[in-house]
Design brief:
The chain contains ten helices and 17 strands. By secondary structure, it is of the alpha/beta class. The chain is globular.
Amino acid sequence: MPTVMQLGVIGAGAISDIYLKNLTSSFENVQVKAVCARHLERAQIKAAQYDIQACTLEQMLSDPEIRMVVVLTPVDTHYEIIKQALLAGKHVYTEKTIAGTAAEAWELCALADAGNLYLGSAPDTFLGTCFQTARKAIDDGLIGEIHSFSVAISRNNDFATARLPFLRLPGAGCLRDYLVYYVTVLVSLLGPANKAGAFVKTPYPVRRNSTPGTDDYGEIIQTPNESIVAAILELESGIVGTLHEDNETIMEDRADFAIYGTRGVLLLGNPNHFGGQVQLLRAEPGRQMTSSVLEPVAGYSGNARGLGAAEMAEALIAGRRNRASKELASHVLDILEAMECSGNEGRMVEITSSCERPPFFTIIE
């Protein structure tokens, strides 16, 4: 089997630049051959920029040299494109979320298994320096037995929905667009969940664009997606915790993320990023609380989007399971849907799926 995986990239929107930059320059085990988009001229612009080919989706899926595709299109297109790629015999890695619904996600998992194909999904930030440093601390028992966690997020939806119009589209509310990062990190660190409850609110389904310099500044815009979530989650291990996101608050993107153990507390960075410090709080008997920053133990602290795809290519070549796996992504989507269901129906919701906790990760060899 070749040691370098030939890739095709599907989608030439805003997120494609960081993927194309990293996949064409940062990982020696992958080589991007081509990019395609619904409008070929957009693919041609990216192809010229990154010295690769532009083609149609049909040409990409019929190219025998391209063994794996990376899907960067809007979420509502993921199911059809991924299904088409799997049926064409391609391994697939996709931007978050893996599909529009958990039912679609698990169907794609079954299709990949039937074809002996790999399927993976972002967010891959959990593979970054911050969260793998936290993972080693947890595995080494640095904070003792873990019983709970807490997440609190503050964002500004007036600014976000004006600057990023895709947040107005179906499936781009705070659950699937942003809380997905935190839930993915939680599952990767602490294991799968079995029960969720939540309040889910959409206080401003219509608002005026108040951000100067944006296309529809001053106009009334539709923002129908949820922007406030207050949730509780129970993991299979018995660990419990809270997740609170309010996107109708201050401009600063704030995130407080803590994991509580019997011997200490870990304070983590923002899972929308790969890097960030891991702070350890400890208190020995009869002594004052101490605070220290853990030494990083993994290799990706910058914007390494595409790392999940490169790690999947490495796994494929080595014949092992990839870390940003289809099962992890589908289980996370099940958790998000359980929160949404709880908010709609006012009850605790059982989560029937599960997944393996990905192994500790340092760097692509």
